[in-house]
Amino acid sequence: MYKVLIIDDEEPLREAISILGDWKGLQVSSVLEATNGKSGLEMIESHRPDLVVVDMKMPEMNGVEFLRVVEKQYPELLTIVISGYNDFEFTRQAIHSKVVDYLLKPINRQDLNQTLRKAIDLLEAKREIRQESITKNIAYNMSLPKLKEKIYFSIIEGSFKKGNNHAFLSLIGGDDPNHRFGALVLRVLNMEGIRDSRFNHDVELLYFAVENVINEMSGDGLQCFSFVNPKQEREIIAIYTISGGYPQDWTFRSEQLMKQVVSNLSKLFGILSAGGVGHPCSDPLELAHSYEAARLSVLEIDLLKMKGSGVIGTHEKLSVRDIHSLTSRMPIIRNALESGNLNHARTVLGEFARKVQSSDSFSLGDADRMIREVVVLFNDIALELGVPADSTPPSSGERALRALGVGTDFSTFEQFEHLLMKVLERYSTQIREKMAGNRPFSVDDIKEYIDNHYFEDIKISMFTEKYFLSREYLMKLFKQQFGFGIHEYVQKVRMDKAQKLLDDPGLKIQDISDMLGYKDKNYFSKAFRNYYSISPSEYRNQIIKDKK
């Protein structure tokens, strides 16, 4: 709807225009009146009409003076001139002021409404153009962050071509010689846990919160623009821009910024993060080097020294260190998984973890590499033992862990070891299910296993997991078949072996205890006495007497 102001010192003419105008058809909601140019300007200032119908000859301020003021102060305001004088001076000013039309008195209905319609059409056209411009500006402002993100990321990954895209550099301030650019890298260590506990399982909301914290750190000549790395999970990149100051201060200020970001994320949301700072550069096209330096400083953080809190990496590389690999232990783990002995596989993996933990250093980058290696090695074992290829996860780090249903968070070495154990258990389940489906169960298999592995720590859970049968059912079947419970039979086999080994005087009782899988000599002696009502030493002495 539109507002129209009629300015004329003659009330009959104002009334005539009010009566003759087709205001409803023209979508005019309000018709205002003023008696001269001066009061008309006051009405314009207070009511902001869209169209003014003005008489050229009036007291105090005539139409010519009025149009000159409007031309300067309200250049967008549309005007229609009405005059009873065929005067060239009035016509010249009307033309100069770009009025919509010039009407002579007396006014008739048709001429008036045709002129009014012409003005309203102009208003509607302007409104459409203005709305289109606003829409474009909104779209531009909404898309600008995405555009900046694409520019920065294309520079970081090396696909930005300066020759073809030079104009885009102005959007990131690249045309300002006083700007210095640098990259920050932030890795969220407890992403899954904090996503579920604080952000209602919404990772996008978590990322949004992190980006806001980073961007709000801007100030004092340092600005930040952050975004999620689309090719690296749990990594957020922040580009900082510094203007002013001295070169020796730039690195210090960016490092202080990173420390503050890590601290604030922990205080506000409980987010644990590892941060890295890239060196500042004068050319934005050198951001790829700054990003790589920041990323490497994160990967070089020593996991063995992390205590489950936020941490900032340095540009100092860790000392030369061992490259730990599980490859040499995989045959043992494979045999354990094939035979259904998950506990033995856990022991092997645990010993490997202890060796890693006792080393001088083990970085976040080492941990990432080990996750990839472990997935590849276990995939190979699973495929060799008949697990279908479509049941094994992709060999791509965190996506593989997620496909296995294993949490990917870790901010201490103990949590990392727990992650590896979970991977082992998931593959063990896949292999057990496949092997259990490939062969029918026979209780003889349990007896055969005990006969061949009596020196190991044998638990009934090994067989329940392997054959997917209940503990009670397995024990009942075994006793029906062999007349012994499973634990009783393990004890019988060990004691039978003990008798044979004691017949050899060259073997010490401690050696025999070790060969049978007992923890120590005293425990073996007690078990032997409970079974035969005589100690191993007494039994051996009795054999010697009998031989004499």
From TrEMBL:
The modification 4-aspartylphosphate is found at D55. Pfam families: HTH_18, Response_reg. Keywords: Cytoplasm, DNA-binding, Phosphoprotein, Transcription, Transcription regulation, Two-component regulatory system. It comes from the Bacteria. Residues 3-120 form the Response regulatory domain. Residues 444-542 form the HTH araC/xylS-type domain. GO terms for cellular component: cytoplasm. Signal peptide: none annotated. This is Two-component system, response regulator YesN. It comes from Fontibacillus panacisegetis.
